[in-house]
Design brief:
- The protein is of the alpha+beta class.
- It has helices at 34-41, 85-93, 123-131, 138-149, 152-159, and strands at 8-17, 20-25, 50-56, 60-67, 70-75, 110-111.
- It is globular, with a radius of gyration of 15 Å.
């Protein structure tokens, strides 16, 4: 049985308002499923919607982007759906089959690699970054994403990656 969301490292909403990046922490009780997270993100007034960045158990992350009625998702590791309800919900949202627990599948991303392309991170760059992910923790991968989009320092401060 998948675990509940108690291993959340952080959950952030990022959006641009009048061209300036804003970052806010999301309450962990909003992380029950994709619909709840999307609903929470829709309340932010971003120029191009809002992006949710959720890192779980130093193991995987979820990017969720909402703009109007559109919701796009990226799960960094589809095999996380074996243990985590939120990851399983993302896989279901994407319309993909859950991986077979019996298989020793390699971690691989699932979803829309290009969900941030118009903001500065192409699908190819995202794919390349996720290929390197095995050597990086989710917060470090998301730091690279934040840098590519132009809010790296804001992100690093929020998640504690800033050197003292």
């Amino acid at each position: 049985m998948p675990e509940q969301i108690d291993g959340v490292d952080f959950a952030l909403a990022v959006y641009r308002e009048e061209g300036v990046w804003q970052l806010e922490e999301l309450a962990h009780d909003l992380l029950t499923d994709v619909d709840a997270l999307a609903h929470a993100l829709r309340r932010f007034p971003g120029d191009g919607g809002a992006v949710g960045m959720v890192a779980i158990d130093e193991d995987f992350f979820i990017l969720l982007r909402v703009a109007g009625n559109s919701t796009r998702a990226l799960l960094s590791d589809i095999t996380a759906s074996d243990e985590w309800e939120l990851a399983a919900d993302v896989v279901e949202f994407l319309g993909l089959p859950l991986p077979d627990e019996e298989d020793d599948e390699e971690p691989e991303p699932a979803g829309d690699l290009g969900l941030l392309a118009d903001l500065g991170m192409s699908a190819a760059a995202m794919g390349e970054l996720l290929d390197e992910e095995e050597d990086l923790y989710p917060d470090e991968v998301l730091s690279e994403v934040a840098r590519a989009l132009g809010f790296g320092e804001l992100y690093d401060d929020a998640v504690g990656l800033t050197n003292a």
